[in-house]
Amino acid sequence: MRFLILSDIHGNSEALAAVLADCAGEYDEVLCCGDLVGYNPNPAEVVDWAQTNCRIVIRGNHDKVVAGLEGLDWFNDVAQTSALWSRRQLTPDQLTWLRDLQPGPVQQEAYTLFHGAPFDEDYYVLTPDDSRDCFGCLETEVSFFGHTHVQGGFFKRRLQVGRLTSVLRDGREQTIEIEPDSVFIVNPGSVGQPRDGDPRAAYALFSPEQRIVTLRRIQYPVETTCRKIRDAGLPEALALRLFRGQ
Ligand SMILES: [Fe+2]
Q: Which domain holds residue 90?
């Protein structure tokens, strides 16, 4: 079984289409670490796609807020505006489906999925120190998470914790070998709103049989997404950050 791992699509149809075209034929099932909606102009289309194509979707913090499960208090003004706008784009059935998404962690035989951290879906795991508390909560060798919009992740080998290498700015992919006696938490990066300085859409492929995770980046027509953001009357900051990848 080969898996396509996606996270933080955030209503970006152009980035999602580019990812799916880039890895066509290379996976059997799609797994999503949350945040289908919010920020970008096509939440309904992304939810519609996920309902049909994802084997497992766990909820992200934006899914939770857009679905009305949590208030807007923790969001800044831009996130609040886009969450309320996204809610208006979804049908009652889509909102119900979003509301019913399972929270992480979700554990399967070969992997675990969570959004922020296994103990808190709103927690940002950005540094090796942040990752230390996660490893004690996980029972599989490999886990996938999102929320930070930063591609890469962390490993633990005996008492050592370190950062995984991500894709270089002029590269297309980075391979991570799942070595014995190590535990890995991997962030595939954000499909729809990267924040690691690389504006290209991010994703990962995982082969438990080959014991390999492949991180990838692919360009997409950012200008089209930005035009749609402006046409929808969403905040300009949401367009600008897509160009910068921040
Ligand atoms: Fe997100």
A: 3-244
Give the CA radius of gyration of the chain: 17
Whether pTM exceeds 0.85: yes
CATH of the domain at 31: 3.60.21.10
Question: 16: CA distance to ligand 1 center in Å?
Answer: 14
Q: Which strand (E) or helix (H) includes residue 207? A: strand 201-207
Residues around ligand 1, an ion, CB closer than 5 A: 8, 35
Q: Compute, in angstroms, the gap from residue 202 CA to the centroid of ligand 1.
A: 13
Distance, CA of 31 to CA of 44 (rounded, Å) = 18
How many distinct structural domains can be found in the chain?
1
Tens digit of each residue's pLDDT (9 = 90 or more) over 111-145: 999 999 999 999 999 999 999 999 999 999 999 99
